[in-house]
Structure formats: structure tokens, C-alpha cells
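Example 5.3 — G-protein coupled receptors family 1 profile domain-containing protein
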Amino acid sequence: MNFTNCTAETISNKSKTVTEKMLISITLAVITTLTTLLNSAVIIAICTTKKLHQPANYLICSLAVTDFLVAILVMPLSIAYIVMDSWSFGYVICEIWLSVDMTCCTCSILHLCVIALDRYWAITDAIEYARKRTVKRAGMMILTVWAISIFISLPPLFWRNHNNISIQNSCIIQHDHVVYTIYSTFGAFYIPLTLILILYYRIYYAAKSLYQKRGSSRHLSNRSNDSQNSFAHCKLTQTFCVSEFSTSDPTMEFEKINACVRTPPPYDNDIDMAGDRQQQISSSRERKAARILGLILGAFMISWLPFFIKELVVGLHLCTVSPEVADFLTWLGYVNSLINPLLYTSFNDDFKIAFKRLIRCKEHI
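Solution (predicted C-alpha cells):
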């Protein structure tokens, strides 16, 4: 997402050496290729695996499509721009590239927001949301994300000077409008980031509460020899055990379906040991859930937070940064499109099976 005015300054007198250009181009080309392949694999896996045809997976598929577009439409021209130290593709291509860059990167970020929202509803309003979680609803969420991204990204096209381009060999969006700087950075990142943090915080504590209630209710039911109590316990745990919403959801680590009715053990010592064992399992799942959420939030913030801090302070004319720093922070954000398919599918067995099947198919070709 290259909309800083830092690169509008005169290009540094020291041009890159051939070796530097080769190293930069190879590194960025590897990132681009991996991003393309991983997101393609997610798209193909969802499209060809019937078990993955679920509303929650369609959100992940849409995210993969968005990141795929970043990889094939944005990254290659960015590599050429960085390596050549100037823009050589003309004004029209520049306008298209900047618009696609901003729209796709914003859309990718907003997808993470709606995925978090979908998971929050799934774990906090399980029974009701299971009825509402339809393909149509997922489609509406995706359309909303794209519409918001366009509204955030396209306004500069209406006030940009089309006749007098101050620097012919650059392709940047000028930050002449402070209001737009605030509007775009908050709309594309700071508001979604706040929402994601709140949602995943609530998801974690809701899941933790479910674990604790489930563990205690099981322990109590194991102490009862009354079959009616066991049946009542089964009905109770069904309110806590969120039935399979989406097996592509890493937060499903929170919600493993367990057998409700158990034969009571004959000895109290066995009951106490079973209760302690259940507590250990719950604690282990809580720690694993925390690690998963930590990875998701950490990767997102490390990738995009530095870029948007720079965008805000530069857009408000509080400081300037060198073109090299601006390019590095831009590509740090692009890397999020490489990380997303790993984080949002690697914790799921159904995706692992689908990926293995794709690999086997390629080996037979």
C-alpha cells in the first residue's frame, strides 16, 4: 500500500548497485511467488473439497483471493519500481496500480476483521448464530468489505492533479489532504485493529469460561450415579459445547466436542483423578488457544502497525522518512498476505488433508 509522499522527494543520489538490485529483486520475487502459491492452494482446496464448503471457509477463501490479487497485481510492479528507482510504466498504469494497491491491501485487513467478528458470534451466540451463518450472510459480509475498501481507497482520484505531475518518474499518492490521511489510516487500519483486539479478547475469555464450566459440570456429573442427572448434564454441556461451526477456524481449538454421557467411575479416587485430568486438559487447551490468537494478532500488528504509524506521522507532516524505509515498511505490510494463508488454515485438519491431496495430485501429473 504505497501512498506516502516520502518517495516523492528527490531520489537519493546514491543509486543501487547491480548486486543490491539483484538481492532485492530475488528476495521480493521469492515473497511474491510464495504468496501466490500459498493463496492459490487455499483457494483450490476450498473450491475442490466439499467438506470445506462452509460459510466461514468462504470468508477465508475471499481473504485468499484478495491476498492473491496483491501478489499478482501489486507486488510485481512494486519490485520493478524499487529496483529501477523510477516509474517507467506511464501515468495510466500508475493510477491503476495505486488504486488496486490501496483497495486490495485495505480489503485484506478488513477481511481479518470480519473473520474475527464471525468467530466472535460463533462462540458467544452459538445456537442462534448457527442458524444465521449462511452462504448469503458470508457473501454480504464480503461485499461490504469490498465496498468499504473502495470508499477508503478511491477518493484521491477525484482531487489529484491530472495535468501537472510534479515528478514524472514517480508513482505516489500525494498527502495534500490531512483529513484524508486521518480518514484513510483510521478506516483501513486503526479502527479494524481496535475491533480485532476487542473481538479476540472476548473470544478468548468466552472460550476460557466455557472450558471452566465444562470441566466443572463434567466433574460434578461424574460424582452422580443418577442416570437422570447424567442426562441433564448432557443437556447442560450441549449449551457450552459449540457444535461444529467451521473446522477451518483456529478458534475451534476452544470448542472440541466431547461425549456427554459417561459411566460413573466406581471409586472416589478415580473420580478425583479424572477431574484433575480434565482440568489439565482444559488448561492445555487454553494455553494453545492463547498461542493461536497471539500468532494471529502478532503477525497482523508486526506487519501493518509500523507502516500505518509512518503513514500517519508523515501525512500529518510531523516527520519524513527515506524512500528505503518507506519501501521496507510497505513490503512488511505486503508480507501479511503471505502469512494469512498459513495462520488461517494450518491449525485445521480438514485443510491439512486437502493440501496433502493437492500435493499428491501434482505428484501424479
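Remark. Residues 17-159+179-206+284-364 form a domain with the Rhopdopsin 7-helix transmembrane proteins fold (CATH 1.20.1070.10).
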